[in-house]
Amino acid sequence: MENTRQNSQLPLLELDLLKTIVVIAETGNFSSAAAKLFRTPSAVSMQVKRIEEMLGRAIFRRDSRSVTPTPDGEVLLEHGRRLLALNNEMVSRFVMPDVAGTVRLGATEDIAERLLPGLLQRFAQSHCCVTVDVAVCSTEVLRSRVNAGAIDMALTTFNPKKKLNDDIEPVFQERLVWAGLRNGVAFEKRPLPLSVWEESCSWRKTALSSLDAADIDYRIAFLSAHISGQRAAILADLAVAPIPESCCVNDIVELTEKDGLPGLSAYGVGMLLQTNPSEPALAAAEHIRASFSQQRVA
Question: Domains in the chain, please, with CATH?
Fold first, then answer.
């Protein structure tokens, strides 16, 4: 009887509080979490204080730059993610009960590495009955596979300054910048060492065109289809690279005209969709549009 009485008095953790804890852990600080949750940093801080007082344990270690989960925080995160996933699965069965099936999605290497994880995670939470199969290929291959009906849709990069093919729908734009190592010297070398990918890459085309226009001699020092490979070249101070502004974090910094490099234009992400898409594909397309509309636009 005593155990029953004690258990009945246990506090109930609100899903909203658990979501805040998870977002803080994913972003690494209160300010970024607040922006993602559309709250003020003080409101987020109050939510953390509330759950810590409720549990009687510290959930995060705080310093001047970031927060990290304590051992108790890790336990809370593990169970919190489970509860949030269960809630999403349950609710989506009522909200989207008739959308079920498989979406065959294609993406270029950079999009698959940087943008797809978040997109797919959020889509799985809202559409539990839809499975997404992903293929990673070049833009040319993706376009041919969509046209042939081998995949339902694809995400590719494009140059917003050039005329778009009629089959591509722009969904996002972001500044493309030169990036180098903080306090590095690679940008001073001539020929300028570059980290880029194959000739069909829109980032490469934009970067080389700007260097040619500025009459700056360059050489391809590092070839990588992955943004992680470009980061490695930058962090080793072997090269500079044209990458999205959002990728300039920590010791990777933007290089400007003050560093002797020409400005770069924005790059775009576009969506290719079959002429007669399935209902799951239409749901995925709408999710992609909504997700990118909430992100920073150049």
Answer: 2-95 (1.10.10.10), 101-166+269-293 (3.40.190.10), 173-267 (3.40.190.10)
